[in-house]
Design goal:
The protein is of the alpha+beta class. It folds into three domains: 122 residues, PAS domain (Beta-Lactamase, 2-Layer Sandwich); 71 residues; 150 residues, Heat Shock Protein 90 (2-Layer Sandwich), CATH 3.30.565.10. It is built from ten helices and 13 strands. The strands form three sheets. Strands 3-2-1-6-5-4 form a six-stranded antiparallel sheet. Strand 5 and strand 6 form a beta hairpin. The longest helix has 45 residues. It is elongated.
Length: 353
């Protein structure tokens, strides 16, 4: 062997030793030990690096050349099955494991090293694993709290709704009864949104088609003659934040209820169409019927929670609301998402400052 080749090998050996000594991970070279039947029963730790000593807080002189059961003070060799399989097959592997002897979690990579030998490279991942366990525990607590909160909110909404219904049935004033029933319907809309958000993966948003289709069905079920009304629903399926779902749900509730109550003297040919589209975050809601329409006088006198609240919510959405009264009633609301919308209302139905 010529001098140049010898120098090349020495240089390579020096670099490998430098890498071995300066790795943050623990590195160990091992040799399997067999019984008389040729079955691997232990392994000798032949060589370790400073990273090994630092992580396990063991001294080199107490480790090298000794059996694993002696070093780790265990009755059986740790991970003997995994290590011997790598040595026999020549196929590397990696895994994460909790080592009870040291009360630590490790990420371990294993590769073949000579005949019946293997090398391990490991790092301490105890802090990460403890953090993951804490996060999982906090998530379990959060799920329990959300479940309890969901039941409480649902029960409270149901209780208030029942009280409103009973009150509406007990009063002799038809106008007062209608107001109470309208309030009950709005509460149902809010309750449905709460259920849908709770059932969704993200508590802040849910699918428009699922929410609004069910909301429309529930509104229709409230009115006895709605089965005579032909209803067309064209709701695009997309994900929308609750800050838009809530006002749109109220608007649909108000306009659909208004059509069912006032638009038709004869429901035999009654038609209501509800359409919601999304074109690159430009949303368009259209609700129309072929009823008798809304007079200008009714629009001017609308001071309650009817068309006035629709106009208010449209304004808060920074949208454009148009009303066509030529053939029945047609409401077209266009607005764009993500414009810093805020729907906090004070008792007068106005924006909070």
């Amino acid at each position: 062997m010529n001098a140049e080749l010898i120098n090349t090998f020495r240089d390579l050996e020096f670099k490998l030793q430098l890498l071995f000594n300066n790795m943050d991970e623990g590195v160990a070279l091992h040799k399997l030990v067999f019984d008389n039947d040729g079955i691997a029963i232990d392994y000798i730790i032949e060589k370790i690096n400073p990273g090994y000593e630092r992580i396990l807080k063991l001294k080199k002189e107490n480790i090298e050349g000794k059996l694993s059961t002696e070093v780790y003070k265990t009755s059986t060799s740790p991970y003997l099955k995994e290590f011997s399989q790598v040595a026999f097959s020549g196929q590397s592997c990696c895994f994460e494991s909790f080592f009870e002897t040291y009360d630590m979690y490790f990420s371990i990579s294993v590769c073949p090293w000579g005949k019946n030998g293997f090398a391990t490279i490991f790092s301490d991942i105890t802090c990460r694993k403890r953090a993951e366990e804490q996060i999982k525990s906090l998530l379990r607590e959060k799920e329990l709290l959300l479940k309890e909160l969901h039941h409480r909110v649902t029960n409270n909404i149901s209780a208030i709704n029942n009280l409103l219904y009973l009150q509406s049935e007990s009063v002799n004033n038809p106008e007062a009864s209608a107001i109470l029933k309208d309030a009950s319907n709005r509460l149902k809309s809010l309750g449905l949104l709460h259920r849908k958000l709770y059932q969704s993966e993200n508590l802040q948003e849910c699918n428009t088609k699922e929410y609004f289709s069910q909301l429309i069905d529930e509104i229709l079920a409230i009115f006895p003659n709605s089965h005579n009304v032909t209803t067309y629903k064209q709701i695009e399926s997309f994900i929308l934040s609750q800050k838009y779902l809530f006002p749109l749900g109220i608007i649909i509730n108000e306009l659909l209820s208004n059509s069912l109550k006032h638009a038709f003297s004869d429901t035999s040919k009654a038609v209501i169409k509800i359409q919601l589209t999304n074109n690159e975050n430009n949303l368009c809601l259209i609700i129309e019927d072929n009823g008798k329409g809304i007079s200008d006088e009714k629009l001017l006198k609308s001071n309650g929670f009817g068309i006035s609240v629709v106009s208010l919510l449209a304004e808060q959405l920074k949208g454009d609301l148009k009303i066509d009264k030529d053939k029945g009633s047609k409401f077209v609301l266009k607005f764009r998402k993500d414009l810093g919308i805020n729907f906090n209302l004070n008792q007068n139905g106005e924006n909070e400052p």
